[in-house]
Every structure is written in structure tokens, then in C-alpha cells.
Specification:
By secondary structure, this protein is of the alpha+beta class. It contains 4 helices and 4 strands. InterPro entries: DUF6325.
């Protein structure tokens, strides 16, 4: 099967930032991952929720300070994220925050996916463990080892 027909897994994340401002570090690292070919970003949307709970969109093309480094990804608009997704984003947010909704493909996995498919493999289950849960579990295991 040619690589052009194969895609890596596509994930999404919703990152909430307190205080309606971004430092740019998260966006900088995302751009770094894109430049290194590790991920391909399909969509980036920034949604704000003011102290009263009203939501608003942040226009990435406007290079405002509110967009942080995500302005560098203003062209990432595939349409995978639709307007109804924005309502879900807004519903998950706390007042006084800014959220980045990002849809990305794990391009690093394309050769693995292609090889698995060529060998007749089919994905029958998958999942994701949030980074915070992994760090918490590893810290707990380390604490057990030091007390043993």
C-alpha cells in the first residue's frame, strides 16, 4: 500500500489557559513538532470565555497578543472542527479562560501504520492515557520504591 494512502492516527486536544492569555510556549512547541514532521496540524481554534461566561473566538490571523504563538498556525483550518465542536469547547471551559482546540495527525506513525496494514494487521483497540495521569502514576510508583 503506498504511503500516500496511509495516514497516522488523528488526535485532538483541548488546552485551557487561565487568565485569557497565552505565553506562546505551547504554540512554539507545537510549531516545532510540525517543522520536525512529527505531527500535521489540521485545525487550531482559540475560544475565550469571559468572567460572565460569554464565549468569543480569537482570530489567529490578527496577530493579537491574545493569540500567543498560535497565530503562526492561522492557516490550519481543514474544517474537521465544526461550529458544533465550538459549543462543546465552550461548555467545557471555565469562565475567565482561553482554550486552544487542536486537531493533529501523528505523522510519525505513518510508516508503522503502513507496515502493519501491509502485514494484514488491523487496529482492534486503542486509547490514550492523559499525561497528568501517567506522571501521577509514575510518581506513586517511585514513592513506593523509595519506601520499600
Amino acid at each position: 500500500m503506498p504511503d500516500t494512502e496511509v495516514h497516522g492516527p488523528i488526535d485532538y486536544v483541548l488546552l485551557e489557559f487561565t487568565g485569557n492569555k497565552l505565553t506562546g510556549r505551547a504554540a512554539e512547541e507545537l510549531v516545532n513538532l510540525v517543522e520536525r514532521g512529527i505531527v500535521h496540524v489540521y485545525d487550531v481554534l482559540l475560544v475565550g470565555k469571559d468572567a460572565n461566561g460569554s464565549t468569543y473566538m480569537v482570530d489567529l490571523a490578527e496577530q493579537s497578543g491574545q493569540a500567543g504563538g498560535f497565530a503562526d498556525l492561522a492557516g490550519a483550518r481543514s474544517g474537521i472542527l465544526a461550529e458544533d465542536d465550538l459549543l462543546e469547547v465552550a461548555g467545557a471551559m471555565q469562565p475567565g479562560t482561553l482554550a486552544a482546540a487542536i486537531v493533529y495527525e501523528n505523522t510519525w506513525a505513518i510508516p508503522f501504520v503502513a507496515a502493519a496494514m501491509e502485514s494484514g494487521g488491523q487496529l482492534i483497540a486503542g486509547g490514550r492515557i492523559p499525561a497528568e495521569d501517567v506522571m501521577e502514576a509514575l510518581d506513586a510508583l517511585e514513592a513506593l520504591e523509595t519506601t520499600s
